[in-house]
Amino acid sequence: MEKILNLDYHEDRWLDGNLSKEDLIAFEDDIISHWENGEITGPIHLSHGNEEQLINVFKKVGVEDWVFSTWRSHYHALLHGVEKSTLKEKILAGKSITIVDKKSNFYSSAIVTGTLPIALGVAKSLKLKGSDEKVWVFVGDMAFESGIFYEVHKYARNYDYHFTLLLKIMV
Description:
The protein is of the alpha/beta class. The protein is built from seven helices and five strands, in the order ααβααββαβααβ. The protein has helices spanning 21-36, 51-58, 74-79, 84-92, 116-129, 141-144, 147-158, and strands spanning 66-69, 100-101, 106-108, 135-140, 163-168. Strands 2-3-1-4-5 form a five-stranded mixed sheet. A hairpin with a 4-residue loop joins strand 2 and strand 3. Helix 5 (116-129) packs parallel to helix 7.
């Protein structure tokens, strides 16, 4: 995968050849067809309805930044640079809710709050190294209500880590 420059709040990665709302929807529609044909044996959780908002969020996420997500991570993975073919292969292998792609610094977990302490550890490590990389963590409303969310948020804030929590509300 070719590296993309991180200039001007990373807007450059969206100028040409990057994923559109229609691309994201088409990917999920393809996954649905594989599910309906019985080709996916594990659970899948699809995204829909928030494509434009996520595209805007990922304009700020650097290519070298770290992204942690939940069981509903397909769009996050694609927007952070996980290759479509790699992601599809993982989904077809039954790993839809636990996508990990080390090349892209992308991790997800089906465990509520499962990525929070790991993401915090990565943020601490990056700060100790003097790195400019950031950590972006998507959580759902159930994780938001937990004690671990509060503790991780407080720790990251108190130690001034490059750490952003993004809450996904399911409607």
